[in-house]
């Protein structure tokens, strides 16, 4: 086991929508955290030598038939435990307290009064704003336990046993709406559980380099690079671990953003010495896309050709033993591994556009334990440029799903030019990093305009910017009007073929992020 895993925090997931958030918050304090299924046996837990356990929230009632199984022996160990919401009720129930459903819960923002400023609430205000989301409540404490805080509705908001090795909150400290949540979590990690802040990008890199060398031995590794941050970090990490025995390939399908392939290769090859090859396969992709307007057909053509190209190029690279890819921790969690299912699913929506089904490589996934912000920190530590690290997510089919209707080289070029201007202005106005994803869409509608004394009849461009945490839901970004004016003026004045710009104000749901 790696040293940074030891002394980490294990989170038993009882089904809360916030479990990933708990894991991220813990890691923000440089403490390793891992999500495990609720029924994980004490034996398994002990092999991981954790400093602390967190019992997450969840939709069940501790006294209901559907309450998830868990190993009660965990409660008798000396490992400090923090229970959150359902986790609080679970601790109360199993230590002899009373949990009841009183018919009314607390949802949303609530005010709590702190009754004891020791331990969990060291340094906290007397009165604090928190986020609640519960139906059941603790109506009687277990013997020897005491209340740490109560809500303005008289509900026990936090409690602890006598030595505070068991503490619990009815509210959610991991949610930003809990104003001092970060302080409470920090108090638990360092004052109560005695964790060490050793989970850093530098430690991760050192450990991964050693692990990759051990795993790969004398073998050769192929890395699929898409132009985005995850696969670029994998390429840089593999290079650091095994040098030229790692070969990175970037397949340019002709539908990338302006100069994207070039700048990615430059950053990796010139900047870090990575052994990377770029293949211009655009003719193969674009010739099949002529007259194709149906989005799903476009996706299929691009996805299939990607597989053919990848297979052929991999063959040309000579004998390869491993394939390295940028699977992240949220993909691992979604694929069910943390929920006790052992199936190892390769995400079909993956950025490099899907992989051949009969892969003859063994997979290497050095980022499997990381969240996106951690990948960015690792990228920084490895010396990748900020422009690549902060780049917004980009779909595998690229501009293919941002050119509505026919895809031609001319229309790709119009969209690339316009999109580049849009991105430049977001950087100039300091907005790029406030946005989760921003892009332009070429719409097959021509509208009338006037430039000088000339009547124009040109294309319509849609621009979109959304805020999101994972792309599952999104809100449209409230773009300042002076930025919108600048974008529209500069695009219409300098991109031939566009004479009107519209801003998309649709959230997801009911819209999707992409237009196709
Ligand atoms: P939607 O449009 O479904 O997008 O709201 C959610 C996120 O997924 C990206 N996306 C894709 N990524 N292949 C990909 O690799 C695809 O076919 C694809 N379609 C959408 C989209 O850019 C957004 O980040």
Give a structural overview.
- The chain has 516 residues and is α/β, with parallel strands linked by helices.
- The protein folds into 3 domains: 9-192, Rossmann fold (3-Layer(aba) Sandwich), CATH 3.40.50.880; 201-389, Rossmann fold; 410-503, GMP Synthetase, Chain A, domain 3 (2-Layer Sandwich).
- The protein is 32% helix and 24% strand.
- It has 14 helices and 18 strands.
- The strands form 3 sheets. It has a 9-stranded mixed beta sheet, sandwiched between helices.
- The longest helix has 22 residues, at 295-316.
- It is globular, with a radius of gyration of 26 Å.
- Bound molecules: xanthosine-5'-monophosphate.
- Xanthosine-5'-monophosphate binds at residues 299, 349, 351, 393, 395-397, 437, 471, 508, 512-514.
- Residues 299, 349, 351, 393, 395-397, 437, 471, 508, 512-514 line the site of xanthosine-5'-monophosphate.
């Amino acid at each position: 086991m790696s040293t940074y895993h030891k002394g980490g925090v294990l989170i038993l997931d009882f089904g809360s929508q916030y479990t990933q958030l708990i894991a991220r918050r813990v890691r923000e304090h440089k403490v390793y955290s891992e999500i495990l299924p609720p029924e994980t046996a004490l034996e398994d837990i002990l092999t991981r030598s954790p400093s602390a356990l967190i019992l997450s929230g969840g939709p069940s009632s501790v006294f209901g038939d559907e309450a998830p199984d868990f190993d009660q022996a965990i409660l008798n160990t000396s490992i400090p435990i923090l229970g959150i919401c359902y986790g609080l009720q679970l601790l109360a129930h199993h230590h002899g307290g009373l949990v009841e459903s009183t018919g009314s819960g607390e949802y949303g923002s609530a005010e709590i009064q702190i009754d004891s400023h020791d331990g969990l609430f060291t340094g906290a205000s007397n009165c604090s704003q928190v986020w609640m989301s519960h139906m059941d409540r603790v109506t009687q404490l277990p013997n020897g336990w005491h209340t740490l805080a109560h809500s303005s509705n008289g509900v026990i908001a936090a409690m602890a046993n006598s030595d505070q090795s068991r503490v619990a909150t009815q509210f959610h400290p991991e949610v930003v709406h809990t104003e001092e949540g970060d302080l409470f979590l920090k108090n638990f990690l360092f004052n109560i559980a005695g964790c060490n802040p050793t989970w850093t990008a530098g430690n991760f890199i050192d450990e991964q380099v050693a692990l990759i060398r051990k795993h790969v031995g004398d073998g050769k590794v192929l890395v699929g690079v898409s132009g985005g941050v995850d696969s670029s970090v994998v390429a840089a990490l593999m290079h650091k671990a095994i040098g030229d025995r790692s070969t990175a390939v970037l397949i340019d399908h002709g539908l990338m953003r302006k100069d994207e392939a070039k700048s990615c290769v430059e950053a990796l090859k010139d900047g870090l010495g990575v052994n990377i090859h770029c293949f211009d396969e655009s003719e193969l992709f674009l010739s099949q896309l002529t007259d194709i307007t149906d989005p799903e057909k476009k996706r299929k053509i691009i996805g299939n050709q990607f597989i053919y190209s990848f297979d052929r190029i991999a063959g040309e690279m000579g004998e390869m033993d491993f394939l390295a890819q940028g699977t992240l921790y949220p993909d691992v969690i979604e694929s069910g591994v943390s929920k006790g299912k052992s199936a190892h699913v390769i995400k079909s929506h993956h950025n490099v556009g899907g992989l051949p089904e009969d892969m003859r490589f063994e997979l290497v996934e050095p980022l499997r334990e990381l969240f996106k912000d951690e990948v960015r920190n690792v990228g920084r530590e490895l010396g990748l440029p900020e422009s690549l690290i902060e780049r917004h997510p980009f779909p595998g089919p690229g501009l293919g799903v941002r050119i509505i209707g026919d895809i031609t080289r001319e229309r790709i070029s119009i969209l690339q030019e316009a999109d580049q201007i849009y991105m430049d202005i977001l950087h100039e106005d300091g907005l790029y990093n406030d946005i989760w994803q921003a892009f332009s869409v070429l719409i097959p509608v021509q509208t009338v305009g006037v430039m000088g004394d000339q009547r124009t009849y040109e294309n319509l461009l849609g621009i979109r910017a959304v805020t999101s945490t994972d792309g599952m839901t999104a809100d449209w970004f409230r773009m300042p009007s002076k930025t919108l004016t600048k974008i529209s003026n500069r695009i219409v004045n300098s991109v031939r073929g566009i004479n009107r710009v519209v801003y998309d104000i649709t959230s997801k749901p009911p819209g999707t992020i992409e237009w196709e």
